[in-house]
Amino acid sequence: MDRLDAETLTRVIEEYVSREGTDYGHSSPDLLAKVEGIRRKLKSGEAVLCFDEVSETCHILSREAWRSLQKGGVTSTPAPSLDMGSDL
Question: Structure pTM?
């Protein structure tokens, strides 16, 4: 995350939160709240930003999902959505 320009990171997060199927629980916060929520999760290490070389797309995964993929030896797979819950 520290290797990306701040503006690039913001655009990656905006693209992620605008995808269909991202789970925000019962409420749907506005774009800015979603972006800041994801940014907090990335900064805290609760979420990780990864790049899939096969599909050439960025994904944001929970740390647990990332570890699970790594343990399974999977290097490229459609990423499960990060459950953002209602803490945004």
Answer: 0.69
Sequential DSSP letters for the chain: -TTS-HHHHHHHHHHHHTSTT---TT----HHHHHHHHHHHHHHTSEEEEEETTTTEEEEEEHHHHHHHHHTT-SS-PPPPP--TT--
pLDDT digits (tens, 9 = 90+) for 16-27: 988 865 565 666
- DSSP-derived pairing of the beta strands 47-52 and 57-62: antiparallel
Tokens of 28: 């749907």
Residue type, 65: A
